[in-house]
Amino acid sequence: MNSRGQGQERPLRADAERTVRAILEAAERVLGSNPAATMEQIAEAAGVARTTVHRRFVSREALVSALSAWATRQFHEAVQAARPDTAPPAVALHQVTANVLRVKTGWGFAMSGTTPEDPEVARVHDDVLAQCDHLFRRAREAGVLAPDSDLGWVRRVYYALIHEASQERPDSDSDVEGLAARVVDTLLHGVGPPADTAKPSP
């Protein structure tokens, strides 16, 4: 009897998780287009009853808060999935960039709603900051970055490049990969011609 009861609970939990994810994904789409959208509009976009949304989230504010928390976790997992501590630095740098761009473009409304005052958001961003700094130190030691690179400056430039790239709103995964390659190439090589081909001004 116990085993049957446990077997019945798992699908229910999985079902609930799928419902919550569907609501959050719909909320991102709807609120990204219309930040004033109602819970009813979000329910319709998610393909669920309004009562289902209200059962999962007691208010619109609670839904937006859950959406921001979800995006924060996605952001953290995106960085960790690139294995910044163990993958070859050049590979990890590209993969971190592509993964983060997927989150920033796919969850733009939610990411814009995160605030540093939220303890979980602050913890995640501190951890991501530490992982990025560690990756840049590994990149410098491996010769991917110049040996005299100011890593604080490198990180600020990198963040700015990712922000600008995320404004491109890529339509496909190949577009994301292309943007990631552009960000990394700009970070490592700038936008001028290679030093050996640059010609002095007359």
Question: Which characteristics define this entry?
Answer:
mainly alpha; 9 helices; Arc Repressor Mutant, subunit A; Tetracycline Repressor, domain 2; 2 domains; about 200 residues; disordered N terminus
List the helices and strands and how they pair.
Layout: H1 2-33, H2 39-46, H3 50-56, H4 60-81, H5 89-106, H6 108-112, H7 119-141, H8 151-166, H9 173-189
Helix pairs in contact: 1-2, 1-4, 2-3, 4-5, 4-7, 5-7, 5-8, 5-9, 7-8, 8-9
Query: Which geometry do the CA atoms define?
Result: elongated
CATH topology of the largest domain: Tetracycline Repressor, domain 2
Q: Would you count the extended β strands for me? A: 0
How many separate domains? 2
Indicate the percent of residues in helices: over 70%
By CATH's scheme, which homologous superfamily of the largest domain applies?
Tetracycline Repressor, domain 2
Outline of this structure?
With 202 residues, this protein is an all-alpha fold. The chain contains nine helices and no strands.
